[in-house]
Amino acid sequence: MEKNRIKILAFGQLTDHVASSGFEMDFVQDTDTLKERLYENYPGLKNLHFSIAVDKKIVNSNTHLAAGCEIALLPPFSGG
Amino acid sequence: MMNRFERQVKLPGIGREGQQKLQQAKVLVIGAGGLGCPALLYLAAAGVGTLGIVDGDIVDASNLNRQILFGANDVGKPKTACAAAMLRKKYPDVHLISYSFYLRAENITEVLQDFDIVLDGSDNFETRYLVNDACMLMEKPFVMGAIYQFEGQIGLFNDRREECTSVQYRDLYPEPPPAGQIPDCNQSGVLGVLPGIIGTLQATEVIKYICDLDKPKSPTLLIYNMLKQQFYHLEITPNPENSIKLPANKEALKNTDYSVICGAGTEEISWEYALDIAKKSMGKTALVDVREYGELPELQNPNCIKLPLSNLESQVKELQNLQNLIIFCQSGIRSQKAYKRLREIYPYKTILSIKGGINAAASTKIFKDNA
User: Fold this and answer.
1) How much is the ipTM here?
2) Which of B37, B82, B135, B185 is catalytic?
3) What is the pLDDT of residues B262-277, one digit of tens each?
4) What is residue A15's three-state secondary structure?
5) CATH of A5-74, one of 3.30.70.240, 1.25.40.10, 3.10.20.30, 1.10.260.40
6) Is B172 within 8 Å of A76 when comparing Cβ atoms?
7) Among B36, B45, B119, which residue's Cα sits nearest to residue B87?
8) Which chain A residue's Cα is nearest to B170?
9) Which residue in A23, A25, A24, A35 sits closest to A63, CA to CA?
10) What values do phi and psi take at B161, rounded to 5?
11) How do residues B145-161 score in pLDDT, each as one tens digit?
């Protein structure tokens, strides 16, 4: 992966709305900007509920990103 | 007596002391479904002394691909009774307590108070948030498990042991998703081995907790992908802001309407999504037209049922064998009224309302395809 990129992993039903379950994007500075960029590229995500993890840590608020970081997009599951 | 546990007593960290702890433990399993069945089997096999089973459902033939405590002869019978009978036969030394009803804000504290740890194998967000809130209030640890198609999530929450960090499900998802957005197993399908694996992982966490085996360094959400055979671990951090979202005490919990919190008042979906559900679970789903007879245009769809709002009370029985009810009217107003009433009549069905009604469909391609 190039330095100015970030890696995105999508889980659950989110994978239906993005390029694939794992893909790369140009670097963005924080998670709020990332969300905006994702909504632009994948409008289907806009109406979906999901949490974000940065380098395998769930984040609760806008978080700065480092180049080369790994983002996970995590929808809740209800099935049992 | 101890012969039944000989092999696990040999394990480092369990021993006679660990077996004693299991024998004294009281575990509540919420939902005797795809997750609950394998979890109950392994907890009983391991010698957990007291097992509570809560479920208000009856066995359906469509459950049998994954709810492995039940067989063909159990169809139509209450799940708790069948599960308890099976487990009693296999493990007469386990004390089983059946609660043949669904957990609600009104009854959960009474059920929880007699147990040390909870295994949440429920299949809806109403129960998940109710269990989270009640367990947080009553200081009970709980192991959450949930699935979607080929993936599962599990996590141990509210771990108050020394050196551990207590987190809640709301630290992962502070608010429930809008109702109807996340499909359940009825809508999205499920292969039995997935809840088998996730339910077994939940039982593993419960046993580890009871025996104090390998305390987690930090609270973790584990995600399993069955197709890729991959695990993904995520660290959950406690967020004090989410504690404010919990009811203040047991009384406040009792008075909380979780169907409202989980968006039951606003379960509005689009035509695209509605027709997709109708297609995917044909025979179990109806598009319920609550407009009066003669209102145009008619929706030409094989899953459409006409049930005018004015006739709702007298005709409502026509819906009793369906699982998913998707209501629509002309503009979306009457369907909300119908929604409210149907929710009261059928608390356990999936009920959704189409946003904007026929007016919203008329401008879309979907309607033309169906007209």
Assistant:
1) 0.94
2) B185
3) 765 557 788 888 888 8
4) helix
5) 3.10.20.30
6) yes
7) B45
8) A60
9) A35
10) -70, 160
11) 999 999 999 999 999 99
